[in-house]
Structures are given as structure tokens and as C-alpha cells.
């Protein structure tokens, strides 16, 4: 075992040991130190000059010894356990020691045996991100937040799309357990997700968007408060019969947004009308059918609160077919600030979720659990606020006023 000053003493003999097969120049015995300012691949033959490394031989060449973890430990003057922790980015390793280990590993062209390490540690350096609808822009931004945190910590992310199909989700969960992923971040399906196998394997799980029945960490949004604010905004703009098109009855987020919508009626001492509510499947086609049935009803609504951006596309299609203009003929506001929402005509008012932050917070929770080494005894839940972004689609009379203003100036048309 080497102490702090032993790196210099060990370096010449170790580097000569590997120089014949790897093509490196050996440092003279008198060099006396590891030049960390020079290229980490070679010792300088003399001050200010460094040799370049030869290409790494292919695995079938077999013309020399392969560096092992004990060689890195000997060169760095640390234990093999410290080398393992440093190269696996364990945060408890002293930064100076970790840097010394990385320099030694590069010097010896050390490559960790990933398969052996995974068998030993009983896990991989991979996270599974399981989402319910890859076509929803909400999950695109969430995935970016997860991946950024994972990459910074040395993990990779695989993306799994369930399409709200419980059988697909079950297969992905089985693969995650079989392949021993380090952790799982998931948006549970509307029918209820079974993570029994993951918990038995002590694979940490973080739920996003919807809660799980199991006691796991979660990152959620205050959906009811966002829906309440959106519906109150429609009333404040003078719309008198706002309808709600929400998700499936067994989806937690759909129920929360419906509850917020109804709470706005109670705040204003109005009686919520059951006839103004429709459940869809969070997709455009079913939302269009829901809007059509509402507009064809005996007493149709004059405004709409739509529970996500995918369904808002279906609502916009139906309104366009009927030549109804949001903000002029009907009010419209939707949950989620999709990338296209500011650019439709007129721009669509939304309840924005902090989507990137949802993913980043979930990633940090998962990292915490990995550092703790197991499934949490007490789950933690983070609840994030939404924000109301008001645009022309919900502002009653705004379009009429704009048309009158442009007409008085002699303009031939107007664009929101």
C-alpha cells in the first residue's frame, strides 16, 4: 500500500511494465514525479516534451498485459476499493484522490470490465425512464431534465414508452428488474402500476406526474390548483358556461384537474353542471369527439378547459371545422404549454407545468436513493406549482377589439 508520496516512486516501474505492449515511452527513474500538467497519456521524456500514446491494441492482438484495477491502485497510491469508487463517481470520494485515480487510469489505459462490475455490484449504470405517451411534448421536456442529471452523475438513460398500456408497462418493468438497472423513473399508467418486482430487487423507483400506490418518492404538480385558476380566469373574462374535457376517470391527474375545475364553481357560488364535463383518453381524437358532443348538446358551453395539450389539438380541430374562433366565439384554455401553443392563431392560453424541473427533481431524488443504497423506508413527495399564461384564446372580446382597431386604420385583415 502506498502513501501520498508513493505515486512518483511507483510510476516508472509500472509504466515500463505496460510500455512494450502499449507503445508508451518509459519515464526515467530520475523523473521523480507525475506531471499532471502534461498529457495524462504519457510521461515526458524531458521537461516540456511529451510523447503521444500509440493506438490502443485491439482485443485480439493479445501482445501484452492488460492493466488491472490493482495496477491503477498501485500507481495512484490508493486502495483498489478507492479506485472502484472513484471511477464509479461515488460522491464520497475525496476530489483530490478521485483526480489522482483518473490520471493513473488514463496513464495505464485502464478499461473497467463493465460486465464483471455489473455482476459484482448487481446493477448497471443505466436508468430506465418509463413514460406513458412519447407523443406528448410534456414528456419530451421531462426526459431532458432526467437525462441532464443522469449524465452529470455518470449514468445513461433508456426511454420506454407504454402508450398507457399496462401490459407494455409490465414488460418494461420486468426488463428493468432482469437487467438490473440502477433505478427507474416512471409515469404510472392510468390503471395502476405494479412495481412489486422492483421493490423486491431493491431497485429505487421515482414516480412522476402521477402517484403510485407504493411508498416511493414522487415529483408531482399541483394540478387541482392549476385547473381552478384556469377556470376562474374563464369566468373573469365573462364566459358563463365553461366546460371541462379531462382524462380517463381512473387517472389521478384527470380527477385532480376535474376537481380544480369544480372548485372554481364553488368559489363563485355556482353549481357545477355535470352536463358540461366529458372524459377522454388524453388524446386528440377522443377529445375532439368530446368537444363535438358538448357543442351539439341542448345547452352548449361557451368556453372550454382542456386537461392537456394533446387533447387541445382535438378541440382546436373541432372548433375550426365549425368556424368558431377561440377568444371571439368561444373561450379556450388548456393544461400544458406545448411548443406550438404560442403560435396557433389566436395564441392559446395555458396552465404551464415546470416540465424540465419535474425531470431534474426526479433525477436528483433517484441519485439520493442510490447513494443511500436501497428502497426508502419513508417516501418523499415534491409538489411543484403551475403558472397561468394568458393569451388571446381565452380573453373574451379581445379579438373583436383588435379587429375594430385594425379596421379603423384601413387594414384589410388582422392576425392575432
Word description of this protein:
Helix 2 (69-76) crosses helix 3 (80-87), helix 3 (80-87) packs across helix 4 and helix 9 (223-236) packs across helix 10. The chain folds into 3 domains: 6-112, lambda repressor-like DNA-binding domains (434 Repressor (Amino-terminal Domain), Orthogonal Bundle); 122-222 and 356-384, Rossmann fold (3-Layer(aba) Sandwich), CATH 3.40.50; 223-353 and 389-408, Rossmann fold. Residues 1-13, 19-63 and 410-416 have low confidence and may be disordered. The chain has 14 helices and 12 strands. The longest helix is centred in the C-terminal third of the chain and has 18 residues, at 355-372. It is 41% helix and 13% strand.
SS class: alpha/beta
* Assigned CATH architecture of the largest domain: 3-Layer(aba) Sandwich
Radius of gyration: 30 Å
Low-confidence region ranges? 1-13, 19-63, 410-416
Annotated CATH topology of the largest domain = Rossmann fold
How many DSSP H or I helices? Answer: 14
CATH class of the largest domain: Alpha Beta
- Biggest β-sheet description: 6 strands, parallel
Shape: elongated
Q: Name the helicity range.
A: 40-55%
User: What name goes with the CATH superfamily of the largest domain?
Assistant: Response regulator
Key terms:
416 residues; alpha/beta; 434 Repressor (Amino-terminal Domain); Rossmann fold; 3 domains; six-stranded mixed sheet; 12 strands
Secondary structure blueprint with pairings:
Blueprint lengths: L5 H17 L46 H8 L3 H8 L7 H13 L6 H8 L4 E6 L5 H16 L3 E6 L4 H13 L4 E4 L9 H5 L4 E4 L8 E5 L1 H14 L5 E5 L5 H16 L9 E3 L4 H12 L7 E4 L2 H13 L9 E5 L13 E4 L2 H18 L8 E4 L2 E3 L8 H11 L8
Parallel strand pairs: 1-2, 1-3, 3-4, 4-5, 5-11, 6-7, 6-8, 8-9, 9-10
Antiparallel strand pairs: 10-12
Helix pairs in contact: 1-2, 2-3, 2-4, 3-4, 6-13, 9-10, 11-12
